[in-house]
Amino acid sequence: MMYIKIFSKDNCPFCEKALFQVMHFKKYLLNCYPAASPYVTEFDYVVYKLGDDFEMQDLVELFPNARTFPQISCEWSAKEVNGKHVPSEREVIGGYDDLVPWLESSRQIVMKEQEEYKKKYNIQ
Question: Consecutive sets of 10 residues in the chain, 124 residues long: mean pLDDT of each?
Fold first, then answer.
């Protein structure tokens, strides 16, 4: 499972924009693939709020170079691939300004894989 984790705070317009972008990306995946596709069923996001779900010290430990809100990471759960254990991974995306190009890069990858998917299953 892949999660986009958004560490946010109240009254933060960039936190709201980040959530909107991630929600839009998930809708994009839903439109690209059938509902049973792993791109949709294995992708989700979670929002953590400062003071409710984490404290500032927690943020500093997870994102030592962070200076703004939100801070965003992408995490993959451990899984089995071809009978081999693949450990969990964590990629720091950064702030909102880093999220937008990261999502665009991900869209490009999805578009390419969508074409391969269509060819494989003879979908027009």
Answer: 92 98 88 60 88 97 96 83 72 96 86 78 76
The domain 2-120 having CATH identifier 3.40.30.10: the answer here is yes
Gap between the Cα atoms of 43 and 2, Å rounded: 5
Contact 9, 49 (CB under 8 A): yes
Distance of CA 58 to the CA centre of its chain: 20
Residues with Cβ within 8 Å of 82's Cβ and at least 6 positions away in sequence, in order, are none
Mean pLDDT over the full length of the chain: 86
Global pTM value: 0.82
Domain limits of the chain? 2-120
- Helix (H) or strand (E) holding 80, with range, is strand 79-81
